[in-house]
Write a structure and sequence with these properties.
single chain; six-stranded mixed beta sheet; CheW-like_dom_sf; Chemotaxis protein CheW; CheW-lke_dom; CheW
């Protein structure tokens, strides 16, 4: 298996740590960087045509047919109260499986897979506006702050 220099550095940095290490997929929504547990991510796909669904919540853009399975698509910019943005070649759909609910999350771009030692994850900030109600914590990696999302709350709130 070939490792990039960054992957080798991350492996080296986390190998000395004896506690729990979380592996996450990081992505951008607006100017913020977010991350979700890699075990919840099924795949990452390029944008495809999304079929609108009548009377869906404002942040549900519609549905897509992914290999014979119809999955709802959530526009994360709208879900977090941000303005819509033009889709680019970097825009992706992160397909996640949360408690057996498969859905797609439209994000501005996907960054990388990271390993974060648990001692570098802080409790979520207080607040109930926008994305803050879905925070699991904040991870510090290479001088960056990653907002770790709690997809169970995101899906639970989206479903209810």
């Amino acid at each position: 298996m070939i490792q990039t220099a960054q992957e080798a550095k991350v492996a080296e940095d986390t190998s000395a740590y004896s506690g729990e290490v979380f592996q996450v997929v990081s992505f951008h929504i607006g100017s913020e960087e977010f991350a979700v547990d890699i075990l919840e991510v099924q795949e990452i796909i390029r944008m495809v045509e999304i079929t609108p669904v009548p009377k869906a919540p404002y942040y549900v853009e519609g549905v897509v047919n992914l290999r014979g399975k119809v999955i709802p698509i959530i526009d994360m910019r709208l879900r977090f109260g941000l303005s819509e943005a033009e889709r680019t070649k970097e825009t992706r759909i992160v397909v996640v499986d949360v408690n057996r609910v498969i859905l797609g999350l439209v994000v501005d771009s996907v960054s990388e897979v990271l390993r974060i030692p648990s001692n570098l994850i802080e409790s979520p900030p207080n607040g109930k506006q926008g994305a803050s109600e879905f925070h699991k914590g904040v991870g510090r990696v290479d001088g960056r702050l990653l907002v770790l999302l709690d997809l169970t709350r995101l899906v639970g709130t989206a479903a209810g």
